[in-house]
Amino acid sequence: MTLDLLLTHYNYWVVIFLMMVGFYILISRGNLIKKIVGLNVFQTSVFMLYISLGKVTEGTPPILVDGYGDADVVYSNPLPHVLILTAIVVGIATTSVGLALAVRIKEAYGTLEEDEITGIEAGIEPAGEAAG
Amino acid sequence: MLLTLLAATGFALLRIRNLFAVVMLAGVYSLLSAGLFTVMDAVDVAFTEAAVGAGISTVLFLGALALCGHHESKPGHTPLLPLFVVCLTGAALVYGTMDMPGFGEASNPVHHHVADHYLEESYGEIGIPNVVTSVLASYRGYDTMGETTVVFAAAVGVLILLVGGARARRARGGGEG
After folding, report:
1. How far is B93 from chain A, CA to nearest CA, in Å?
2. Looking at chain A, which residue has its C-alpha nearest residue B43?
């Protein structure tokens, strides 16, 4: 019973582990670029979760063999693939905006470390003037 | 197995503090996940991930590093609170998977809502043998249009941020000089 559960759910659990690694990088590291990498790891693990859901054992990629849904051929579920294709492209869009923001923050504050930025914000006035 | 390799890469990503190595490892991670997608029959997703995740995003990260420098300083606070939050979330998620049907069973509910219709009818209705393409471009065409809008908005945002930065720098240089 326990072994059975382990075998059928191994995929989900590794995906959850990767998700949590990404989440941990995101919340525990101060460097903004490292945070974006963590966000990407999290994102890719969500993709893997969806693709795992779409997999059918003994299935083939959902490209029709002779033009019709043949009863003899088992296809994997195409719907999660479509959703994830969209998500990958949207993911790269958000990553690029995040990196552009990081570049601007580096220009304005001279650092990418979160605690140093907070210090500058709380501290002296001249450093804040460059932000506009 | 690929999943185990992925887990190892993720852990290495966590530990390494040189950001160049981190970006390269993120590329490796992306490529491994593309391999995993191929194994799980998602060939379209695999080549998109290999091109976009391992290719374009690595280039973007390297560009950002060239502008920002690549050293990450040691985290200043204790890792205990984040670790606690992460473990709690992970435990909740694992508890959630207990109710999920097993991996790859053909009788899972996810395979029997609209997927059957797509597989059986899409060739007659659309005429493209690749079901992923016909769903993407036709049945869920509005999704794809929304996606293009998001990409456009992101491109405009990046341009505004970077051009605005260059302008601010020039104005500052003019004021000082």
Report:
1. 7
2. A61
pLDDT digits (tens, 9 = 90+) for B10-43: 666 666 667 777 888 888 888 888 888 888 778 8
What is the distance between the alpha carbons of residues B41 and A79, in angstroms, rounded to a whole number?
A: 12
- The predicted model scores a pTM of 0.81
* ipTM surpasses cut 0.85: no
Residue type at A74 in one-letter notation: V
| Architecture category of domain A2-131 in CATH | Orthogonal Bundle (1.10)
Q: Is A106 on the interface with B (CB under 8 A)?
A: yes
Of A102, A100, A20, A63, which Cα lies nearest the Cα of B134? A63
Instruction: Single out the residue of B52, B11, B57 nearest to residue B34, CA to CA.
Output: B52
Whether A113 and B17 have beta carbons less than 8 Å apart is answered as no
Q: How far apart are CA A113 and CA A100, in angstroms?
A: 16
> Can you tell me the distance from the alpha carbon of A28 to that of B13, in angstroms, rounded to the nearest whole number?
13
Are the beta carbons of B57 and A92 separated by less than 8 Å? yes
CA distance A128 to A130: 6
Q: Collect all residues of chain B within an 8 Å Cβ-Cβ radius of residue A107.
A: 165, 168-169
What is the residue extent of each domain of chain A?
Answer: 2-131
Interface of A with B in 71-90 (CB under 8 A): 74-86, 88-90
User: Between chains, do B7 and A55 touch, taking CB under 8 Å as contact?
Assistant: no
Helices B115-125, A78-109: inter-axial angle, 10-degree rounding: 100
Q: Which tens digits make up the pLDDT trace of A110-127? A: 777 877 888 887 875 544
